[in-house]
TrEMBL record:
Domain of life: Bacteria
SF4 helicase domain sequence ranges: 160-421
Top EC category: isomerase
Protein name: DNA 5'-3' helicase
Protein source organism: Marinobacter adhaerens
Classification of source organism: Bacteria, Pseudomonadati, Pseudomonadota, Gammaproteobacteria, Pseudomonadales
Gene3D superfamilies, per the entry: DNAb Helicase, Chain A (1.10.860.10), P-loop containing nucleotide triphosphate hydrolases (3.40.50.300)
Pfam families named in the record: DnaB (PF00772), DnaB_C (PF03796)
Amino acid sequence: MSIQAEQSVLYAVLTDSSRMKECDLEPHEFSDWHHQEAFSAARDIVNQGEIADLVTVCEVLEKRVPGVDFAKYLAGVLENAFCGSAFGQYVEIVHKSYRKRQALNIAQTLKTALSEGQDGDPVDTAIQQLMSLNQLGRNYDHDMKSVMAAGLRMIDEAMDADGIIGIPSGLSDLDDCMGGFHDTDLIVVGARPAMGKTAFMLNLALAAKQPVGVISAEQGHEQMGLRLMSIEGKLDSQKIRTGGFYDNEWDELRKTVNGLSDKPIRVNDEPGMKINALIRQARDWKYRYGIKALYVDYLQKIKASDSRAKRHEQVGEVAGSLKNLARELEIPVIALAQVSRECEKRPNKRPMNSDLADASEIEKEADEIMFLYRDEVYNPDTPDKGIAEIDLSKNRHGPTGLVRCVFTGKFMRFDQLAPKTFQEQYGGSA
């Protein structure tokens, strides 16, 4: 079946070289070496702005592979093969056949490595190679027509979704500013301890209402489960920890647990996780469960591949790898980050980009950076009790600014701040 599909692709290209523009195959994906050489020659001819047909292709091949009668072979292909409107299907068959052959080769190499006891981690190598097969056929070379078409599709999606084309945050003011969390973006959320950044991340994960993955290098899945119960059910977190519920509250807890059990959220709580393990897990979640976003708690807790490197180099590797992962899986990656205690030495303790640990490495990779701040942590008498500030300090795709929301500590919830009345905002009467 693969050989026939390859011949049908060649037939289409040699009878109408404009079809080459619709084809994202590479010569090495063909199983027959005649087909590899013929397709390579045809593609080179088309790239030079000329027409690829039996005559021009054979002329090139006579110089590249002297002594081989390509004219006879390709004439047979043109006589016996056919394509019609199924060109795209034949291209896909060639893609799949190539991936199958490569997968079999990887499996055989793994079997040999394991049986011979080779050094290194052959299983990890095989997994990475198998995952990379899913990138085959993805086109990264675009003309302006396709670039403009993609831009228009994003505008249409934004119009249909009332401006939110990414994963929602659950906070309409933040979504109005960012348009949601966008595919391929790395979003960094920085905060000092006690600001509620893990709770904030879980609020975001629940608000997505789509399959998502959570990497928890900070807490175990049991603690994450308790927090999710409190957030989703609006249940007192202290009572959840101590079991001090009244009878009617137990009913609400059971209802909350049943609802959460059906949520499409995956959690990995491996302590001391290395970045390569994180990448493997995210790929697995993407291909098995179709996750639409990845949440990481937190960036500086993820270990780099080289523990001997300087600290800023390790953080740079992790941040860069998370950004590349977002692009590879075409999902947003939302990573929490610890903020240096230096900000607490200032009169205004609100963090800035420079307060991120190894800030330059993180700032370089992040598409958006936001900081979580609650004034009541430092100033118990503040008039802003129960208020959390989200300072969007970097936004590659739009405006920066400050968003205020409600934080209810006993429920660990971040909610949209109710709009002020006319009198509250401006004074006087409407």
